[in-house]
Design goal:
The protein is an alpha+beta fold and 183 residues long. The protein folds into two domains: 102 residues, Roll (PH-domain like), CATH 2.30.29.30; 50 residues. 39% of the residues lie in helices and 28% in strands. It has four helices and eight strands, in the order ββααββββαββα.
């Protein structure tokens, strides 16, 4: 499973042959690809965080008229904790919501509000079709999109939303499928 992207790191969103393990990994199951949302898709919450800090800074000029410095310090501390919590939860959400393509299956791991985890997996033998959806100028320019893996029967379908290089990831899945089916 060679690809034109050779580098891999913990904070990359497209990791080829990562040296990683996961909860339900079986003996002899090799991880070929680990996917996270494209970094560009994180711009929204990053800009919101910056805006929150700017609003907090500007509001300090108005708070001086109503509160003493000790009260302003407590108010600032309260809102800084909230802003940093918002940033931390968004980082965790990006980092732990992953798609994994292995030698035996395709897995989508989604965390919601840090307390709830949903794992959807599809055995390679049960995969019927893979679809890439990428539309618009920004998705084309930054080369990201969504991958939908349809399975046979009543099994849940697997979705990787806003991942980088979706067509390359589908090529890897298709190569694994052709090996599995002996084509």
């Amino acid at each position: 499973m060679e690809n034109n992207i050779k580098k891999s790191s913990t904070f990359y969103s497209y990791c080829v042959n990562p040296q990683t393990k996961f909860d339900t990994q079986e003996d002899g199951e090799k991880v070929y690809l680990l996917l996270r949302s494209h970094p560009f898709t994180q711009i929204g919450w990053i800009m919101s965080s910056i805006l929150f800090f700017i609003i907090l800074f500007i509001s300090n000029f108005f708070l001086q008229n109503f509160f003493n410095p000790g009260q302003i310090f407590i108010i600032n501390l309260f809102f800084i904790v909230i802003i940093f919590s918002y940033i931390w939860f968004n980082i965790l959400n990006w980092y732990f919501n992953v798609g994994i393509i292995t030698s035996k299956r395709v897995i989508d791991i989604d965390f919601y509000a840090v307390l709830y985890k949903e794992i959807t997996n599809a055995q390679l033998g049960r995969i019927e079709d893979t679809t890439v959806k990428s539309g618009g100028y920004i998705e084309s320019f930054f080369d990201y999109g969504s991958i939908f893996v349809q399975t046979a029967g009543t099994e849940a379908n697997v979705e990787f939303i806003d991942v980088p290089h979706p067509s390359d990831a589908v090529q890897i899945i298709n190569k694994l499928l052709s090996k599995k089916h002996g084509f």
